[in-house]
Amino acid sequence: MGPTVIITGVAGVGKTSILNELQKLSERENVRLKVVNFGTVMKGLLDSAGKSLHRDEIRRENLAIQRRIQIEAAKEISKMRNGGVLVIDTHMFIRTPAGTFPGLPEQVLKEFDPSLLILLEVEPEEIARRRRGDSNRVRDRQTIESVRSDLEWGRRTAAACSVVAGVPVSIVRNEQDKQKEAAREIFEIIKEVTK
Fold first, then answer.
1. Burial class of 38 by CB neighbour count within 10 A (0 to 12, 13 to 18, 19+)
2. How many domains does the chain have?
3. Considering the domain boundaries, does residue 45 fall inside one?
4. What DSSP string runs through 45-58?
5. Is residue 25, in this structure, part of any structural domain at all?
């Protein structure tokens, strides 16, 4: 069974762009790599249960439902391992009406059994700009200070997940128009854990 790599970052950090580049790079380099979005799998499970929501609306659901669907989604994703690298696209935390909720609670981390965590970051002003320009997502308005807080919370949560899972965490910057470079950096880090 190949390694599982969790790639995470706050909303607007550019995970989707980097993961698209990472997928292309892995194809060029002939490396089996599958990218799965945790929130999309959660949404699919909710849809199957007759509860159709936009992916960004799940965080407003009852916490017991969120916990249950996280665990179900983690089990589904774990079944997707196929000998190549499984990359899970997710968030370290979710802002809910009740407060900050872990995106990777201990039971989910155990199910994933990751080899590596990668935290994507960029300047808070860039994140705010990207969030304003993304009309496909349902996001709360935030100040630069709240984005800074999200980045700090992400680092602390990544550190805690690293300790619980017993795996390294790498921080990769996703500067404007440098997605290919960030994808290459991630690809090289992944190669280190597949040795």
1. buried
2. 1
3. no
4. HHHHTT----GGGG
5. yes
Q: Got the DSSP string for 61-119? A: S-HHHHHHHHHHHHHHHHTT--SSEEEEEE-SEEEETTEEEESS-HHHHHHH--SEEEE
For residue 112, pLDDT over 90 is answered with yes
pLDDT, tens digit, 9 for 90 and up, residues 171-182: 999 998 899 999
Residue 69 maps to a domain: no
Tokens of 34: 């599958």
Torsion of the alpha carbons at 105, 6, 55 and 44, rounded to the nearest 10: -90
pLDDT interval class at 23 (50, 70, 90):
very high
Q: Is residue 72 part of a domain?
A: no
State pTM to two decimals. Answer: 0.90
Any bridge partners for residue 4, and if so which? 86
Which CATH number do you get for residue 157? 3.40.50.300
Cα(43)–Cα(52) distance, integer angstroms: 8
- Parent domain of 131: 4-37+83-193
CA dist 157 and 54 (Å) reads 25
